[in-house]
Amino acid sequence: MISMPAKRPPVPLSRERIIEAALHIADGQGLRRLTMRRLGDALQVEAMAIYHHLPRGKEALMDALAEHVTAVHVEQRSTWQETARAWCRASREALREHPGVLALALTKPPKGATAVAVKEQAEQLADAGLPDAAEAVRTLRAFVFGSVAVEVQQSGWADPDVDEWVRRDERADIDFERGLDALLKGLQT
Description:
The chain is mainly α. It has two domains: 15-64, Orthogonal Bundle (Arc Repressor Mutant, subunit A), CATH 1.10.10; 69-187, Tetracycline Repressor, domain 2 (Orthogonal Bundle). Helices cover 66% and strands 0% of the residues. The chain is built from nine helices and no strands. It has helices at 15-29, 36-43, 47-53, 58-70, 80-97, 102-107, 113-127, 133-155, 170-188. The radius of gyration is 20 Å and the shape is elongated. The relative contact order is 0.10. InterPro entries: Homeodomain-like_sf (IPR009057), HTH_TetR (IPR001647), Repressor_TetR_C (IPR004111), Tet_transcr_reg_TetR-rel_C_sf (IPR036271). One of its GO terms (biological process) is negative regulation of DNA-templated transcription.
C-alpha cells in the first residue's frame, strides 16, 4: 500500500496574515482591486472569515493598512534633530515599501497605533528640547508624506503602461535629504 503524504494543516488566519495579503494585493494591483473576495481568495478562505478578525470589514482593513505604514517608532537620539531625521527616514521607507496604500496614509486621520506614534514623536522632540514639538511633527509628517507622494508619482508605479517601476531613485534620495536638512534648519529658528 502506498502511503499518501500527510496534508499540511492550513496556516491559521490572523490579523497579521490578512494585512500582509492585503498589502500584497494593493501594492501589486492597486487599492481599487483590493476587495474582500479577492483577499479571501488570496488567503484561501471565505471572505466572511476575514470579518472575524476585522469586524468592521473593509473599513477596518483600510484603517489597518494605513496604520501599518504610518505607525513608525524610532529610538530617542542624542538631539531632537537626529531623532527627527531618524523618524523621517523610517517613515519614508515604510511608505515607499507599500505604494499601494499611500493614498490611505495620506487621507486617513491618525488613530490607533499611528496616533500613539505621532504623540511619541512629539514627546521625544520636546524632551530633547524642541519648542512647539507637536507643530514640528505636523510639519515633518507633511514633508515626508508629500515627498513620498511625488516620488511614487514620478516612479511610474501607478501607470498601467509601465512594466517595471523605479523603486530606488538616487535623485529622490538626494532631494529628500536636502529638503529634510532645510526643514530641520527652519525648525531650529
